[in-house]
Amino acid sequence: MKPARSFASDNNAGVHPEVLRAVAEANRGHAVGYGDDPYTTSVVQKFKRLFGSDIEVFLVFNGTAANCLGLKALTNSYHAVICGEAAHIYTDECGAPEKFTGCKLLPVPVTNGKLTIESVSHAYHGIDDPHHVQPRVISITQATEVGTVYQPNEIKALARFAHQRGMFLHMDGARIANAAASLGQTLRQATRDLGVDVLSFGGTKNGAMGAEAVVFFDQKLGHDFLYLRKQGMQLASKMRFISAQFDALFTGDLWHKNAQHANRMARLLQTQLRKIPQVKIVYKVEANGVFAKIPRPAIAKLQRRYFFYVWNEQQSVVRWMCSFDTTEQDVRQFARFVAETVER
Amino acid sequence: MKPARSFASDNNAGVHPEVLRAVAEANRGHAVGYGDDPYTTSVVQKFKRLFGSDIEVFLVFNGTAANCLGLKALTNSYHAVICGEAAHIYTDECGAPEKFTGCKLLPVPVTNGKLTIESVSHAYHGIDDPHHVQPRVISITQATEVGTVYQPNEIKALARFAHQRGMFLHMDGARIANAAASLGQTLRQATRDLGVDVLSFGGTKNGAMGAEAVVFFDQKLGHDFLYLRKQGMQLASKMRFISAQFDALFTGDLWHKNAQHANRMARLLQTQLRKIPQVKIVYKVEANGVFAKIPRPAIAKLQRRYFFYVWNEQQSVVRWMCSFDTTEQDVRQFARFVAETVER
Amino acid sequence: MKPARSFASDNNAGVHPEVLRAVAEANRGHAVGYGDDPYTTSVVQKFKRLFGSDIEVFLVFNGTAANCLGLKALTNSYHAVICGEAAHIYTDECGAPEKFTGCKLLPVPVTNGKLTIESVSHAYHGIDDPHHVQPRVISITQATEVGTVYQPNEIKALARFAHQRGMFLHMDGARIANAAASLGQTLRQATRDLGVDVLSFGGTKNGAMGAEAVVFFDQKLGHDFLYLRKQGMQLASKMRFISAQFDALFTGDLWHKNAQHANRMARLLQTQLRKIPQVKIVYKVEANGVFAKIPRPAIAKLQRRYFFYVWNEQQSVVRWMCSFDTTEQDVRQFARFVAETVER
Amino acid sequence: MKPARSFASDNNAGVHPEVLRAVAEANRGHAVGYGDDPYTTSVVQKFKRLFGSDIEVFLVFNGTAANCLGLKALTNSYHAVICGEAAHIYTDECGAPEKFTGCKLLPVPVTNGKLTIESVSHAYHGIDDPHHVQPRVISITQATEVGTVYQPNEIKALARFAHQRGMFLHMDGARIANAAASLGQTLRQATRDLGVDVLSFGGTKNGAMGAEAVVFFDQKLGHDFLYLRKQGMQLASKMRFISAQFDALFTGDLWHKNAQHANRMARLLQTQLRKIPQVKIVYKVEANGVFAKIPRPAIAKLQRRYFFYVWNEQQSVVRWMCSFDTTEQDVRQFARFVAETVER
Q1: Which of A23, A298, C189, D106 has the highest Cβ tally under 10 A?
Q2: ipTM for the complex?
């Protein structure tokens, strides 16, 4: 029998019971559609308490939309977005950013999943030349796509580089909760205070059913976002049920508990895997993912019981993600299965 | 105290308890993301039982997306979509169809909210002239935006007109359940069998939390839709929770009961309102909406207790919608309040 | 034998000899591409002398591009452009404005080819409602598509209406020369001084080979236009040959002579046609076009010798345009042929 | 005094006298606009004689447009275009391809300016995965951006690779004349016969004033291109003057003479430069460009007399282009100046 929980992705997890309860509790009578409801008003207040009263925040359905709409708010069609060559916006959104913004994405090499000033510098060129797209945004993913976490000073440096050149810093925070928990920072410390201008705030991987937010730390940037969200097909009619999800995540620091737990499970998984000589951890385990190089023949065997993604086929690197509902037992059971499998 | 339920919109209603239960029941263990889960597989089968095994169906977040993505699948950027001047796609989607498809929408006058062959004929011109956008789709809304319902022969005629000219018939079925119930037809009879090529199937106004589907009655038309959905920022990671909603609506004909009930409430509201001399029903009540011309000063007074939308400010016409959760008492109470208010 | 010159369109005319000479004279040695050449520098100076030193001006290939790029500079994708239902941008550009700007065009009825405050007012609604596109530009065509000319106070009123609401006034000046000549105004008086914000300045119909300009009367609006022009595929590498065309039109007021002559030929044609009882002029002849209702059977007969366009098939209205090279003899010969044909 | 002719770019050259004469000769009487004129009919026939009677060909204003519109005809928005990281479409068109097609461009490393099967293979992945854009076109530039020329078998291999995977081969032929002349091939041999599906045929750098063509070797691919051209703002009203330019280039094999001459001048320049020890030619001189590494301090000194572009600032590589009007004397004079300058 297949196990109830896999290590395929934090979005393969279900919904945290508190989130589900909040959704059920929001199901009382009628509420005005499209966000003019008390649940949304309330959750916006909570966002403001977390990030500062002078922000603008907008709920959307999924992370791709949060990224694309946020970037559109920062750009005109002749701009460019500098991002990592492994960035979700570059490799996993089927060209949605280009289609919705009209912009070119400029991929640059990453080190441990992270942009550096040096790599970004190479993409910052052609300035004032009408033949070239004009770099306007640096986009980083926190935690990164390979489970590492930017250190505060790394983000500050990128923000400074961007701002000195009239660019913005965008953060794809599909796993910002994991990063903040990992760094021991508040959400604000992990984003706004480091110079991030616009944040895609991910709720879904943190235990929600489907809830993401675009947070503007400069209200002017979000001035017309209401229209972009509607034109971007991301205005929920029964928005209260998205708001309720964030509300639950923000109640009793559930976001933090969920993230911390997932991170801890990843570290535990790392610990267990390290005992297996045939398994080599290839990136620092700083958030909730473990990337491991394993013997090629083991992949298919493992996948027979546990669905997961191969990260790099050529290098035989696989990705294993932990989530809020991963249990210690899940981890130990899986690590044991890995050990048995690779040893055969 | 404000009443628990208003007549503002069927999307101001909450979620049907069976839908909520289905969502909660889907919350078991992990499931592969993006639709490769048993819940989605199951609901696709149910769609196929309802519409025929040779369809393609794709779930999306909301109705605007269902419309825009469906239209994009039918068009190239130099095409045009003929629609009513009051069509939701023309007036209420903030230009999302134009932005996502690149197409021009050609608005034509409607009669009782419906396109006619005559009105459509006027927009069908400039054929083979490269200066003109080329009409490619006729889009109708069923039930219409003003609460009327196309008769089967009306849709058949539009489908024939379209197909004879190499065009497609698209149906914005945000309220197709209400229309089918009103006509005493199955969902298939009300759509595919009349010649509709692509359907935006609305679950949200029928009692879901947020669940819409694009149904292609010719599989070839949906061939590449997987990519359009992702690029259109409409691919849900935890899709099982959308699938579960449709599953509930399709279980025990819940969709039909919900729609029938809402329609019945609208008829009851009509009956009650007809007793008020100052209120004039302006469109046939064939689905779940009542459009009434009322004394202008009454509008603000009514809105103090019941939130609702003014449909036509100049003509003092307002819109009152019933939904699956509207009770007879709600209707009688509201009608009484209307009577008292307009009589003052 | 077919006559050398028809009345089909002012773009069926050739190139004025002075323009051709200027092109030939610009063909000396090498010049830096993309506009960094002395011919372009010189013609930009001439534009500034005509319109004011604080303008921005950019040359493009054709009128559709001038319109689309100019509108894009004024809008974000969720904006709307209010225009006449007979506007070239609405009916004759194959959806290029929607495709390039993402905006919806809101067509309003025209009177004698002109927008009025009243018609525009109806399209100005849904303000601050995220479900609606936000009107941002009023676009007028001067001279109009039906050969009439806005009076200065009409334009001033539209500009005032626009500016009071945070909108811009765009002028499609494919025939601005004809309008200015008709009104006895300078180019500046006919545009900037009336409140126009952005002008598509047409050279092609005025005797050029293919030369149009986008003129921003507020430099800020044109700030990033260099990039839009390149991204809009309108940056000519050998730009000097476009610049030379405008230079010729601006030398010795050739633009004015050409326009005045074309206008005079249209008036002469009107005079001649008025003598024919079966021909009814349907719009005021204020520029270089004559719109006439003629007996339906005559259309095909006339077209056998003279190619021209039917403007309104149902009303049997045809369009006859004069151009800089139309001769009096052409007009008399054509009018005689019309007379003979309709009388048969 | 600055020399009349520089080595900055083949688009800094003027217009070949025969082209100018053809333009002047086309200036006779009226001609129907938008391509329904005898000049265009005639030149289309000439294209068909060169490339086969079953092609479709469309004239546009410039090379960026030829590329973008040609690519749009081959793609839907979720497709990707594989191209060299130095491709003009990737680096020098200000994001026009992304904006007009909605597609992502996938840059791959080039060897001597050329794509290889190996580099292309790396970009061909994510097939059938809706999270990934789907590779649909391989785009090559011939002659390349660095003055090299693909050998016939190299193009055949790329075409085979593309066609075996349901992809198309697009050729940016801004300098296809130079390549064909270099290879001793006819235009057809150099394109269609190697498996190219769509060609951007460059006239401008070959001696025209501004004339490019999109040639479809499979008519079906060009089926709707009339609309794309108009919507892409590339339909010239006085098209005869573009047609006349191509007509001249096709008369007496002028295209070939111009290209051959330019290539010969580049080889002469190479010969002369090779005598200068401080100058190192960095790419094979196979067409009309010479790329040389020169002492960094010489660049600014040379530019004081001759305008030209630095190709690679870091490596101190400059680009010198020859054109149809470059004379032997120009070359010798320039080479002498280079020698003097670098030796100082």
Answers
A1: A23
A2: 0.97
